[in-house]
Specification:
two-stranded parallel sheet, six-stranded parallel beta sheet, 12 strands, 40% helix, Rossmann fold
């Protein structure tokens, strides 16, 4: 755990839950200097124990709770539904209850996997969710629990999250590219690769504006929004873009990539074919749009290049 960061007097108290994850790390960076940040990781706070969640919120008395925690092992969740439900649904409900009690703002992140992928075009917040897997079902249950509690809350659905740190598709591709000459990548699943940095920066901008009263009372802004990088691609297209940039920035040789259908890469959890999300509501309500996914990828790989040369 990291205690309250160095900050100017009078700045809001922000509690980050899930601080060691990809989004949690970037939230700490984005809110540094803008808030008194307390960051709790899974060792500091066991999200499967409701009393500990309540005790933590009451101990730190935050004005903003950023819930970046999640059970994200999509395939393992098929055989471990209970722990997935505890972290993805029950814990958010308790955080929402504590936020309501303290009149704090709760920010929670959800997933494109609440949709079944069975339609063309981007999904909007008004579309009916229909998860194909346990992970998506537990994340949807978390959304519904927060909305049932109400209060001052924001739920941001995002997709294909990655960063220059942690465990994700970007770093897996780079590692496999160093180990193998050929890779087969699924080409018939489409989404928007989104960096944790873009999510965190957008979150910080929106939260700061809400706290400043820019968007009025909660009934004018509380709710569910889609938040992804702009544009879309397939996993195959994402891999192509990664290796094209890795050759230039990291001087890494590209493997031969073969596009394959999902049927040739079976997984315990079924994935949606189309999980592209529309970000129009986010832009209309808050005036915020994330970067195009290729530009965000450039920034992530530039950071990896700086680390490699530093």
């Amino acid at each position: 755990m990291s205690g309250p960061a160095e900050a100017k007097p009078g700045l809001p108290r922000v509690l980050i839950v899930g601080a060691a994850g990809q989004v949690g790390v970037e939230l700490q960076r984005s809110f540094a200097g803008h808030a008194e940040v307390t960051a709790l990781n899974r060792h500091d706070l066991d999200l499967s124990v409701p009393e500990r969640i309540r005790d933590a919120v009451r101990q730190y008395t935050p004005q903003v709770i950023l819930n970046a925690s999640a059970y994200t092992a999509v395939d393992r969740a098929e055989s471990e539904p209970e722990p997935a439900m505890a972290v993805n649904a029950h814990a958010p409900r308790i955080l929402a209850e504590e936020a309501l009690r303290a009149n704090a703002l709760l920010v929670h992140y959800s997933t494109d996997y609440v949709f079944d992928g069975g339609r063309q075009g981007p999904w909007t917040e008004a579309d009916t969710p229909h998860p194909l897997n346990v992970y998506g079902a537990t994340k949807l249950a978390g959304e519904e629990a927060i909305r049932a509690v109400g209060g001052r809350y924001l739920i941001f659905r995002t997709s294909w999250v990655y960063a220059p740190h942690g465990k994700n598709f970007l770093l897996t591709m780079l590692r496999l590219g160093r180990e193998r000459d050929r890779l087969s990548i699924v080409e018939d699943q489409f989404g928007a690769p989104t960096t944790a940095r873009e999510l965190a920066q957008a979150t910080q901008a929106i939260v700061s504006s809400i706290l400043a009263g820019q968007f009025g009372p909660p009934e004018q802004w509380a709710g569910l929004y889609h938040m992804t990088c702009a544009g879309s691609t397939s996993w195959y297209g994402f891999a192509q873009a990664i290796f094209e940039r890795a050759e230039l920035l990291l001087h890494q040789r590209s493997p031969e990539l073969t596009p394959i259908p999902s049927s040739e890469y079976p997984t315990p959890a079924k994935r949606p074919r189309n999980s592209v999300l529309s970000n129009d509501l986010l832009a209309a309500r808050f005036g915020v749009r994330l970067a195009d996914w290729p530009a965000a990828l450039d920034a992530a790989l530039a950071e990896l290049s700086q680390k490699a040369s530093g």
